[in-house]
Amino acid sequence: MRRTVAEHQGAVLEVLTKAWSGPEGTLRTEDVGERMPLAEAAGRVLAGDLVAPLSLPPFANSQMDGFAILSDTSQPEYVDSIESTTFTVTATIPAGVTPSRLPSGMAAPIMTGAMMPDGADAVVPVEKADPARFLAEGESVVLPLTRAGTYVRAMGSDLAQGELAIAAGTLLNAAHIGLASALGCVQLTVRRKPRVLLVTTGDEVMLPGDPRASDGLPAGKIFDANMALLRTSFQQAGVEVVLAPVVADQPQALLEMLESYVGPSARGGIDLIVSTGGISAGAFEVVKQALDDASVEFVSVALQPGGPQALGTFLGVPFIGFPGNPVSGVVSFELFLRPALSEILGAPEPRRRVLATLEHALDSPAGKYQVRRGIYEGPEFESAASVREVGGPSSHLLASLAQANALIHIPAGVTELESGAKVEVWLL
Ligand SMILES: Nc1nc2c(c(=O)[nH]1)N[C@H]1C(S)=C(S)[C@@H](COP(=O)(O)OP(=O)(O)OC[C@H]3O[C@@H](n4cnc5c(N)ncnc54)[C@H](O)[C@@H]3O)O[C@H]1N2
Ligand code: MOO
């Protein structure tokens, strides 16, 4: 059966939502959240609402270095007056202290961020004073007529105590961490990271450093790309990775290995299994042969690279099988898994999607959604955003993937694009 990209995206989302968000699911709940020191909480997803335990600012304070005064409330509010009043200067109010009440007719030199004294409701910046400098206690200063509230940051004007500061599900960035600190938080409760078992398959695959390759790569063998590539992609997407040893093309060996991680006697803790390779039409398709009669579907998506896909569960754990070609694995991750993780768990951030002008003509197979690797150049001054292909459409072209900074999307119905056409690009 042949699926569209959108259908398979929906299917992946459904399998993961069912497993992670249902009554049995633990990934989205606050109960299993981890308490993290603020410094380590960036990039994680807040587990429960953070309600402000105090107001920001916590007290009314001055927005300027200047003089705190009681405004003349007898004056009409919107007068742009050049009138001025002479005040007697009191003791200076630095930031960090509790000032004493301001007697009427007096002006207190006050610093930015210092607490407004009772009896004052406005601040005149020092440069508007005459003389335009700070004066000693007892001296006289002439200040222009000023409205109540001028250059005063009211208590709670940023956030009032009891208001929602950061909503559950927010992917925490630097500003959120700063806000939490300003609210006095030492730690935040963040959602647990999903833990993925990454399974690499293939008789031909050897890990770098394998002693069997100490005299050079044996004929017919290749060094692994997928395990390294997907492990990094997962980690960068905030997913914890458990690496399974490379599995030979023996279905029984794969089943035993999977059971050792998620079977009844396993330690558990695996939220998702992702395999690479062994799912297409060959004589030795280890994943397909091991799982075809289990609760895993093997489907063909009208997509290139990334056409063959496996999806289902293994012993109740969501199972996703990516094709073995390295670029197919990356495209599968970006099209199917990353969007589902973002939607269900709130992290990672979805890829930024932009329109760019294609620098050259491109053709694409009929009936398939094609994803080409590209070099994107963002808009600069007069020039619009543009993109050009790097490498070709084949899914083994890892070196050109490494040069790319974008994925060019060509919808299934499009077979030819002219130079200058607008294309959707996902920025890597
Ligand atoms: N007769 C057909 N043959 C193929 C079809 C098809 O529809 N009919 N589909 C092709 C497409 S498209 C893809 S994609 C691949 C997917 O194959 P598998 O998922 O079964 O993956 P393998 O055959 O195991 O490997 C494919 C390719 O990738 C290399 N590989 C595998 N693992 C790694 C690794 N860890 N690091 C680097 N490279 C890896 C492997 O050596 C193969 O070259 O099937 C097509 N065939
Ligand atoms: O779908 Mo395959 O991933 O084209 O190479």
Question: Care to describe what's here?
Answer:
By secondary structure, the protein is α/β, with parallel strands linked by helices. The protein folds into 4 domains: about 180 residues, MoaB/Mog-like domain (Molybdenum Cofactor Biosythetic Enzyme, Chain A), CATH 3.40.980; about 35 residues, no CATH class; about 90 residues, Molybdopterin biosynthesis moea protein, domain 3 (Molybdopterin biosynthesis moeA protein, domain 3), CATH 2.170.190; about 80 residues, Beta-clip. Helix content is about 20%, strand content about 30%. It has a 7-stranded mixed β-sheet, with helices on both faces. The chain has a 5-stranded mixed β-sheet with strand order 8-5-7-6-9, with no helix packed on it. The protein has a 5-stranded mixed β-barrel with strand order 22-25-24-26-28. α1 crosses α7 and α4 runs parallel beside α7. It is elongated, with a radius of gyration of 31 Å. The model has no long low-confidence stretch (mean pLDDT about 95). The site of molybdate ion (MOO) has 9 residues, from loops.
